Amino acid sequence: YGKNTIKFLRLHKEGKKHFVKEVEVCTHLRLISAQEYLEGNNSLVIPTDTMKNIVLVLAKKNGIPTIEQFAIDICKHFMTTFGQVAYVKTYVQEVPWQRLHENGIPHIHSFICVPDGIRFCEAEQCRNGPLVVFAGIKDLKLMKTTQSGFEGFYKNEHTTLPERHDRILCGELFCKWSYGECRDFDFDCIWNKIRECILEAFSGPPDCGEYSPSYQKTVNSIQMNVLSKVSQVQVIEAILNNTFYNVVDMKNLGVTNDKEVLVPVETPYGSCACTLGRK
């Protein structure tokens, strides 16, 4: 049981310069006894309102250096403070605020919300067990307008999809990876490096791109790039929800539309998923 969607903004000041972290936290506990379920005995139950207040107080006292460290702080607090807690799991996601720049100069107290993917993490621990940390990015919308196709697929009497060697590849990506047991990692640096690996594998070289024969191959390329360049990642899960675009037929309008005006196919949409880990 636990408390979901604890939302707050943590403001930190260094002189005139301000720093912000806006997060959403979900914290869940498993107790050593199930007596509250079986007998209605609440003597071991930590109220979810208390859990919410603990999260807020920890944000006040410790700050949020990274969302991973904040999740670790929450897990450690519940595990060391309450003997009746057998397991704790904390999820934290961050609102993507970025500092505003004016003529290349960073503003001291103004920010803009940039929807280029939402950073999240999880930390979990069983009593007498290791503290394990996961991190990820979700709602990352990516598109490339060429260097993508889909050919040679299985066909039968129900197949109507034409083969394509030049199409738009567009989708919303979810990636989650495991660091294994918690260590003294530079979580900000690693997360930014993984994000760069994702974008690099999706798009290919900036001057020519890289051909994608399928969404599945693109997902695998992303995972392989991360595992090859970021040694701290042990396992990576990726889900790519596809957005298809159809060319608008403008013949009746007396216009030739050479893949210049397209409309998205909202539903149904395709999805492919893969989990890849080291041997």
Characterization of the model:
InterPro entries: Uricase (IPR002042). This protein is of the alpha+beta class and 279 residues long. The protein has two domains: 2-129, Urate Oxidase, CATH 3.10.270; 140-277, Urate Oxidase, CATH 3.10.270.10. The chain contains five helices and twelve strands. Strands 1-2-3-6-7-8-9-12 form an eight-stranded antiparallel sheet. Helix 4 (187-203) runs antiparallel to helix 5. The radius of gyration is 23 Å and the shape is globular. The mean pLDDT is 95.
Overall domain count: 2
Computed structural class:
alpha+beta
Q: Which percent bin holds the helix content? A: 10-25%
Major sheet details: 8 strands, antiparallel
CATH class call of the largest domain? Alpha Beta
Low-confidence stretches: none
What is the N-to-C order of secondary-structure elements (H for helix, E for strand)?
EEHHHEEEEEEHHEEEE
Number of helices in the DSSP assignment:
5
| Number of E-state strands | 12
* Ends apart, CA distance between termini: 35 Å
Q: Using the alpha-carbon principal axes, give the shape.
A: globular
Rounded mean pLDDT score: 95
CATH superfamily annotation of the largest domain? Urate Oxidase
Identify the CATH architecture of the largest domain: Roll
Give the radius of gyration. Answer: 23 Å
Which fold name fills CATH's third level, the topology of the largest domain?
Answer: Urate Oxidase
Report the portion of residues in β strands.
Answer: 35-45%
GO cellular component, one term: peroxisome
Pathway: Purine metabolism; urate degradation; (S)-allantoin from urate: step 1/3
Protein name: Uricase
InterPro entries: Uricase
